Amino acid sequence: MRVGVTVVPAEMAPASVEARTVEDALRTVTVTVPATSANLGPGFDTLGLALSIYDSLTVSSFDDDRLEIEVTGSGAEEIPRDAGNLVVRSIAHVYADAGRRMPGLRIHAENGVPHGRGLGSSGAAVTAGVLIAKGLLAGDVDLDDDALLRLATELEGHPDNVAPALFGGLTIAWTGERGPQHKKLLVHRGVAPLVFVPGFTMSTSLARSLQPHQVPREDAVFNVSRSALLVAALTQSPELLLDATDDRLHQDYRGAAMPETLRLVQELRAAGFAAVVSGAGPSVLVLADGPAARQAAVEVADAVTDTPWEAHMLAVDVLGGTVRDRAEGST
Ligand code: HSE
Question: How many domains would you assign to the chain?
Answer without folding.
Answer: 2
